[in-house]
Structure formats: C-alpha cells, structure tokens
C-alpha cells in the first residue's frame, strides 16, 4: 500500500513539474511533497458488503414494486460512491421504471447527463426533481451548475442564490456562488464573498478555502490547517484534499493558468472521492480542457 501511495505521489509530481518552474511554490504541491490520501481498498469494504446483500435480496421474486425500486436506488447510491457510475445508472434507471416519481433518482441521472455534456437532458431531469419536490436543495445546485457550464450566468445566479440561502453557513454554497459571480458580476464578487464569509461555520473545511480565496490565509497556512483538521490518510483527509485541489484549480483557471489548473484538477481526482461534486466536476473540467486543446 505504501508503494502504491508513493507511486501516486511520483505521478502527481511529474504532472506538476513543468508548472512548478513557472509559478511560486505552493506547499501543497511542492517538489518535495505532493499531499495525497492513501488509497486502501479496505476503506470500501462496508459498501461492497451492502451491495452483495442488496443483490441477494433483489434475487427474491416476491418483492413489491416500491421495495424493489428502493433497493435498486440504494445499490445505485453505493455504486455511485465507488465510482461505478455505469452500474449506478442501470440501478437508477431500474428504480425509475418501477417507481417513476423518485425525485432523488432524477437528480442522479441529471448529474450523469450533465457530466456527459447533455445539457438539455440534464436540465429536464433537474426540472423534474423540482416539480416532484420543490424543496430538494441539491437540485438547485445541480441546475445552477448546468446553467454555469453553458454560460447562462444569470439563470445560474438565481439557483446558486436559492441554494446558498437554504444554508448560509455552508462555505461550499458560498464558493459556488462566488465562482458564478466572477462571471456574472465580477466587480462585486469578492466583496460579496467577504460579506458572506462572516456567516460561515468553522465546522466545515471549506471555510478555510474561503479565507484563502480572500487572501486571509497563505498556501502554507492552508496546508497546516489540513493536517490539523483531519487525520492523515483517513477518509475525511481524502475529502478535504479533493475539495482543496478542486477550488485551487478553479482559482488558477480563472487566472488563465491552464497548465496549473489541469494539474490540480488531476490531483483532486487522485484522491478518488467519487461522489463529491468536486471530483465529478474536476473530471468534467478536464474533459473540457482536453476538448479545447484538440480544437486549438
């Protein structure tokens, strides 16, 4: 396992070597240390056992439709958390055939359609979620992301703001609202971020990322806070690294530093937190960057 972790670090360093010579050294991604979470297959043991149990129950023929739909949905969520998105889509589709009014299923399928670049299909899915359940908060986030990535920043602002107002203490809602405002009303974005930062909860790691965006933390201070916030090599450690690398990447991309952003998006994915929005959209951003390179 240690050899595997070292290999990941070497790979990540090679990805960053060219970029490091052109920018100030960032402790999180310096030539002496690339911070990554340990990838231990045993971390997913519980999910794998649950998948096996649900699969056994689904073999029973005398389940009611709603029971079978619920089991397909639960197994789909487990597959999604393991990065097995094709199997997850199959289960979500089966659940929808059995019970067509499952809002959460439309939300997952909408995300997959968005990641595939099917903006119209994903928009229809998120609209269906909100038709079935107008209080489904994450459908507002996901629909906002749809609008954001097609450049409809005014519509994205409306949904990002609805999502933010549902919990102003959540820094991730604040960060996405800020990223959209950089496009929608750039002269107000940082001032708005500073104002919203006052209401954030310190229980969330993302609050530190907001303070970094505001220039209140240096790269070195951010790294120290990572080590203090979570036990190294724990699942939570992988999660906060995924978040940190993603939002650092978005910052670099907004500054026009494509090589640095590309490397950071790859580092966000290297921690393999498959069901985090930051992992999903690191993958999405990389596909866009590759497409842009081909077109150029």
Automatic annotation (TrEMBL):
TPR repeats, residue ranges: 103-136
Domain of life: Bacteria
InterPro entries, alphabetized: Lipoprotein_NlpI, TPR-like_helical_dom_sf, TPR_2, TPR_rpt, Ycf3
SUPFAM superfamilies to which the protein is assigned, alphabetical: TPR-like
Transmembrane segment boundaries: none
Subunit record text: Homodimer.
Name by which UniProt lists this protein: Lipoprotein NlpI
Organism of provenance: Testudinibacter aquarius
Gene designation: nlpI
């Amino acid at each position: 396992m240690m050899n595997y972790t070292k290999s990941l670090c070497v790979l990540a360093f090679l990805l960053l070597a060219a970029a490091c010579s052109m920018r100030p050294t960032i402790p999180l991604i310096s030539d002496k240390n690339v911070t990554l979470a340990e990838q231990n297959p045993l971390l997913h043991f519980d999910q794998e056992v649950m998948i096996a149990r649900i699969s056994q129950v689904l073999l029973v023929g005398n389940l009611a439709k709603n029971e079978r739909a619920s089991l397909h949905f639960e197994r789909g969520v487990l597959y999604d958390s393991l990065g097995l998105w094709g199997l997850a889509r199959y289960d979500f589709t089966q659940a929808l055939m059995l019970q067509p009014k499952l809002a959460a299923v439309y939300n997952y399928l909408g995300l997959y359609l968005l990641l595939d670049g099917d903006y119209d299909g994903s928009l229809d899915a998120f609209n269906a979620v909100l038709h079935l359940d107008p209080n489904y908060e994450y459908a507002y986030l996901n629909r906002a992301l749809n609008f954001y990535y097609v450049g409809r920043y005014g519509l994205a602002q409306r949904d990002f703001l609805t999502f933010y107002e549902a919990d102003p203490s959540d820094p991730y809602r604040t960060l996405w609202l800020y990223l959209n405002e950089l496009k929608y009303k750039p002269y107000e974005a940082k001032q708005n971020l500073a104002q919203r930062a006052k209401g954030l909860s310190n229980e969330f790691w993302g609050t530190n990322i907001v303070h970094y965006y505001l220039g209140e933390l240096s790269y070195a201070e951010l790294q120290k806070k990572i080590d203090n916030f979570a036990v190294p090599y724990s699942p939570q450690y992988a999660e906060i690294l995924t978040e940190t690398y993603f939002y650092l990447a978005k910052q670099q991309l907004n500054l026009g530093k494509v090589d640095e952003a590309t490397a950071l998006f790859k580092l966000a994915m290297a921690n393999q937190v498959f069901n985090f929005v930051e992992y999903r959209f690191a993958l999405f951003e990389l596909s866009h960057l590759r497409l842009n390179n081909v077109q150029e």
